[in-house]
Amino acid sequence: MSEEPQIPVDPDDETEIPESHPRHESLLARHRIEAGVEKGITSLQGLIAQGRGETYDYLLGERTIESADAAARAAAAEFLLADHPVISVNGNVAALSPDAVVDLAQATDADIEVNLFNRTEERMAAIAEHLREHGASEVKGLAADGRIPGLDHARATVDADGIHAADVVLVPLEDGDRAAALDAMGKTEIVIDLNPLSRSAQVADIPIVDNLVRVLPLIAEHARDLRDASREELETIVQGFDREAALDAAERVIRSGASE
Ligand code: ATP
Ligand code: MG
Predict the structure, then answer these.
(1) Which one of 101, 131, 171, 205 is least enclosed by Cβ atoms within 10 Å?
(2) Which residues are near ligand 1 (CB < 6 Å)?
(3) What is the rounded CA–CA span in Å between residue 88 and residue 136?
(4) What superfamily in CATH does domain 66-256 come from?
């Protein structure tokens, strides 16, 4: 009989996932998403997004490829060059990596804003509360007094002094439509998406084809490493990043299993 993966019984208890399990990271992520749904911070649609992401991650070898590391460094440079960077958080991001979001915001002096595809006030409040429990001092998104032009009402809603006023926005798992609308507003857009063919990745100034669980801490690490770099050095890093080449490299790895 083949061995069944042990899915934890209690969604609040991560310790029930055996560390020795070969798919420990993946089980942990599923567990967090499941717990997120139970806590009212992740939508049922989020389960589908998670499944799609896992597929691409499997094909990438569940590692940060070289071009994604370069993208993460360019993203860190953009954050440090920005006047007003914002990290956009949805239900999957909040469930998977709340500590990493808070840490990245601290490392880069960025705002955190909750932004949902399926917006409900309950879920907005639950996510903001969850982020505060993980150390966020301020969470935006609840004022809802700004609009992204070109989108229908609910999906256009942002904070006037948050995403609306931002010059650099990090959108992990953004919906393609809204990613395009933010791009049209002239913002520097950094997208984390495991699918290099996703519209969100395609419209990004800096597409990072990696799992947000791995790459959020990596962006913070690059930001700390670059903290004392001059504007010229940061600009050189940004200019040296080639978005087309990064997307091509990720697609090549996925299609051929090549190391890059
Ligand atoms: P498209 O962009 O192709 O039009 P979509 O964005 O509407 O499709 P969804 O399935 O809603 O499609 O998007 C979920 C996206 O999030 C997928 O591209 C998936 O690869 C990505 N994703 C899911 N989990 C993660 C994760 N942990 N890290 C990074 N990306 C993820
Ligand atoms: Mg997409």
Answers:
(1) 205
(2) 49-50, 52-53, 56, 96, 173, 175-176, 192-195, 198-200, 211-213
(3) 13
(4) Phosphopantoate/pantothenate synthetase (3.40.50.12640)
